[in-house]
Amino acid sequence: MAKPKVKILGVSAAHRPNMNTAWLVMYALEAAKKIGRRLKDKVDFEAEFVEIADKEIKPCRNCEKFHITNQGYSYKGKPRPEQIGCPIQDDFMSQVLMPKMKEANGFIFGAPTYTISYTSKYRLFSERFSPLVWGGNLTNKPAAAVTVGEMPFGGQESCLLDMNKMIQAAEMIPCGWYMGAPGVSGPPYGPAPADPDYDTRIGVKNDKFGRWLALVAGRRVAEIACMFELAKVQLGPLYAQEYTQVHHPPRGDEPWGWTRLDKEDEDRLMSM
What we know:
Blueprint: E1 5-12, H1 20-38, E2 44-51, H2 92-103, E3 106-110, H3 120-127, H4 130-134, E4 142-149, H5 156-169, E5 173-174, E6 181-184, H6 208-235, H7 237-242, H8 263-270
Parallel strand pairs: 1-2, 1-3, 3-4, 4-5, 4-6
């Protein structure tokens, strides 16, 4: 039996490339790769890092009807009608990131903390998830949030909370420990904005707690992704037949009516 392929994708949505957030995401990816090496007899493991600091990602146009199967109209029979998909086809998100996200089995998302939440770059990236969500391309995939703030208590918890809201809303599985990995790049670990090496020194390297939480985040993403892919192999056709492929309500003549209980259970509970 062929080994399942497991790929973890790390994405840094910082405005400055190759700095603190990118470094902490890559640190988490190394922890994921360590799990992959330990499970090499069971899975073919791969990890990839993508930096979007200098990449064009256009804002979502809220044209959701193109993302919904059959544009939301009822249909009969199988196979499931194809989605039209996102009409934006000329930016980095459509040409590079969306195909990578469809292929990946788990994610590590990174964004620095700006004004107690994530960057505008991360917002542009995450709001374009809609066609991936409606296509079932993110459902049940583990994802961890990583952020770096300039100071301790610099809003990292708020940023991670916002990132995890997006992860959960996009039907992914939030994982890690606590809310993810909060790092500190400035004092006492790194330079202050006025320091001459502010744009070159990666202070989060010295944040032992941030590194540890990034390690936990990367490890958990890899663990869950590997278990999920191995379970699919064991389940075989039952996975597609019985497991929820998307958690939003299906449109039209979808197989397996997961939105309702078996009739006897429904009747029993409604009569109580």
